[in-house]
Amino acid sequence: MLDPRPHLGEPLALDLLDTRWMQNGPQDLLSDVAGLQIWLRTAGIDAPADERTLDALIAARAAIYTTVRDADHIALNEVLGHGRIRRSLTDNGPTDTPDVPDPAWLPGWLAADNLLHLLAKAPDRIRQCAHPDCVLFFFDTSKNGTRRWHSMATCGNRTKAARHYRKQG
User: Fold this and answer.
1) How far apart are CA 168 and CA 124, in angstroms?
2) pLDDT of the chain, 169 residues: tens digit per residue
3) Chain centroid to CA 60
4) Which of 87, 90, 134, 140 is in the most buried spot, having the most CB atoms within 10 Å?
């Protein structure tokens, strides 16, 4: 089955947040194991698609959301506590390998770790779409850092059209 979400391609942490969206009411890709399978495939993560992984991923999504929206990192640190980065030197040079003993926590841990990288790189570029009815997140990669919508083609145009019609009325 294809990924039904309206917005794909964000960094892993934000892609996990974007498993919830509005389309004829609230939608949640992680409402069941079938949706988990879709997300794991889209994210390119090899992990068990079962109830334990689903529960862990939903907990990670909530932790990432709370960190991004409320700057509360307690739950994020709990997710990160399920793994670590193992550093080593190989014949090809230094390598960092995720070490997550419980496979059910691997997808959520990877998403939480990705959020740390985004926060270190440019925390001000982690944004929620400015359209009042949109719940999607994105990482602003625009040159000047002024992107407001997850997609200009959808939310941006709807916002501009609504503003135009208000001025006409």
Assistant:
1) 35
2) 899 999 999 999 999 999 999 999 999 999 999 999 999 999 999 999 999 999 999 999 999 999 999 999 999 999 999 999 999 999 999 999 999 999 999 999 999 999 999 999 999 999 999 999 999 999 999 999 998 888 777 786 665 555 545 666 6
3) 10
4) 134
Close Cβ partners of 77 (under 8 Å, ≥ 6 residues apart): none
For residue 91, what is the DSSP state?
Answer: T
Q: Indicate the burial class of 138 (C-beta count within 10 angstroms; 0-12, 13-18, 19 or more).
A: buried
Distances (CA, A) of 135 to 59, 99, 124, 130: 18, 32, 18, 9
